[in-house]
Design a protein that fits this description.
This protein has one domain (about 1-190): 3-Layer(aba) Sandwich (Rossmann fold), CATH 3.40.50. By secondary structure, the chain is α/β, with parallel strands linked by helices. Strands 3-2-1-4-5-7-6 form a seven-stranded mixed beta sheet, with helices on both faces. The protein has helices at about 1-10, 20-30, 45-55, 70-80, 95-100, 120-130, 155-170, and strands at about 35-40, 60-65, 90, 105-110, 130-140, 175-180, 185-190.
Length: about 190
């Protein structure tokens, strides 16, 4: 089913997480014994399948995406992967409109794979959403190597650098940068 979801992503012009990133997501979800996960950027369900495999059998993935048709592909992929329909809650809409409606300290893991220009805002919402000991994870922080390139950079890369600096300097977070896929920034909330 992962191949099918990846094919749908490619057809829609979307990036999907690498197999290494997917394995890391599965591990991270299992390591926090995740029962409630929030995902920003449903895509066609590739990352969601990995997260669901790592979560507890009774866990629920809440996934947010501005494109309902992408969520339809993800719904099909989850069902075909053997997940009951009550294991995922699909919320169409912009992340910054939806996240404020989610429960404070109600999540074990927040996976951010939406608009990179909004990552700092996602961080602020994630700190509110996560329980102590929960994890926030950002996908694509290497920006194809551009975050470490010394030349002039687009706004997206400057925002990613600001995110990296903010996470490193935030006292209530214990961060690590995993060199899988296009870079996975992880941080545990104290």
């Amino acid at each position: 089913m992962l191949r099918w979801a990846r094919d749908r992503a490619r057809e829609a012009g979307l990036r999907s997480v690498s197999p290494g990133t997917g394995a890391a997501l599965r591990l991270l979800a299992a390591s926090v014994d995740a029962k409630a996960v929030a995902e920003i950027g449903t895509g066609t369900g590739v990352s969601g399948i990995h997260l669901l495999h790592g979560m507890r059998p009774d866990g629920v993935l809440t996934t947010v995406d501005p494109e309902p048709e992408h969520q339809q592909f993800a719904r099909q992929a989850f069902r075909a992967s053997g997940f009951a329909s009550n294991r995922a809650r699909f919320i169409p809409g912009r992340a910054l409109d939806v996240l404020p409606r989610l429960a404070d300290a109600g999540y074990d893991l927040v996976f951010c794979d939406g608009d990179r220009l909004e990552f700092l805002d996602y961080l602020a919402e994630s700190l509110r959403l996560l329980r102590p000991g929960g994890l926030v994870v950002f996908e694509g922080v290497f920006a194809n190597g551009r975050t470490v390139d010394s030349g002039p950079q687009p706004t997206e890369v400057l925002r990613l650098r600001e995110l990296l600096r903010t996470v490193r300097e935030t006292q209530e977070l214990v961060p690590s940068l995993l060199p899988v896929g296009d870079g996975l920034l992880c941080a545990v909330k104290r």
